[in-house]
Amino acid sequence: MDRKPRVLLTNDDGPPGIDSPYVFGFAKHLALDLGWDVKVVIPSSQKSWIGKAYQIKEITKGRYYYPRDPDGHGDVSHVSRPLKRDEGEFAEWILLDGTPATCANIGLHNIYKDGIDLVVSGPNLGRNSSAAFALSSGTIGAALSSSLSRCRAVAISYGTVQHPVPKELFQPAHVLGGKIIQALLRDWGVDKDGIRNNEVDLYNVNIPMIDNLLEQENGGPEKQMPIVWTSIWRNAYGSLFKPHTLEQSNAEVPAGGPDARITASRSSPGDGVPQNSVPDISETKTPTKTPSPPGPSDHKHGYEFHSHAPELVFKFAPDMSGLIGRRVKAPPGSDAWAIERGWVSVTPLRATFAEPSLDWDDKSTAIVDECANNPQLSDIIPGNLDPGVRFFKL
């Protein structure tokens, strides 16, 4: 690409704030340091763990946002207005009352129609590595949405290792993230099954927020943070919710999973501290009300009703014990394996569901009989049957 790329930047953490500390600095780096044409369309509030969801019944409304130094806080307006550059405003952003995927799609097809070369989603507060996190990630969801619109897309996440993350790590992470995206743009990668010109649909990048980032500019080769190609670690989670009483239901629920704030002090990759999780369930308060045993059933209207049944109130409180920490043994070459070593992971992805490798020969032995006995298939000559056609046998 000879000219500077035109980039749509979105995220799932929302506008700059305590739960969205990276988007302002990253947008400034892309626009002011790299000179890219950056357009920002982000959710008006945090939308973590929402995947590639869209809001289809609600009307999506938007506002204009004018971030300014030093922290990205700024004015909100219902109409576009000139920038107040003397007050530190450098760009006009758009906030939408929608999901990250909604922001990406509206940005591509309604606001900046036919003018975006690349969608960057992030930087996310916390890792988005492994299947359990990636399939839930609004950050990756926005990138998936963009790739399904045949636009190149990169999801980028900053893995929390120490809390609070030292601010001196922010800019080195932005610089490294920009270099990785530049390298991808120079050689995007071929995928014969890609939905856009037989190229890779999207990439997922995870950068651990560790002190090695400080060596990226001034350190020698031995100090450089390794960047490795990875695959997604296939893992699983258990309970994501816990019972909650009505008295507690108004309590603040922090973002869960890889986006959450944690209460650890300093740690290092793999030391057993949940790097991007809400407090462990064992550390949170248990409901003060003990559920009563079920009472008499009422079948009057065709359903059971227990007069003393526990209240159906639950709080998002995922158990991350098997997903992050020293005891997790992710396979070599996976994204989680790289992050646990303090390495950057770059994972090429397809915007589709993976399909298992089955023994199709055993499942297709009845093709000839099916063709002979099914009137709808009688015109198919088994010898000329496309080898890709496989019939389902009841």
UniProtKB/TrEMBL annotation:
Q: Looking at the UniProt record for this protein, which Gene Ontology cellular component terms does it annotate, in alphabetical order?
A: P-body
Survival protein SurE-like phosphatase/nucleotidase domain residues: 7-236
Report the GO molecular function annotations. Answer: hydrolase activity
| Region (Disordered), start-end ranges | 249-304
Q: Quote the NCBIfam families the UniProt record gives.
A: surE (TIGR00087)
Give me the stretches of Polar residues compositional bias: 264-279
Bilayer-spanning residue ranges: none
Name of this chain's protein: Sure
User: Which PANTHER family does this chain map to?
Assistant: TUBULIN--TYROSINE LIGASE PBY1-RELATED
- Which top-rank group of organisms is this from? Eukaryota
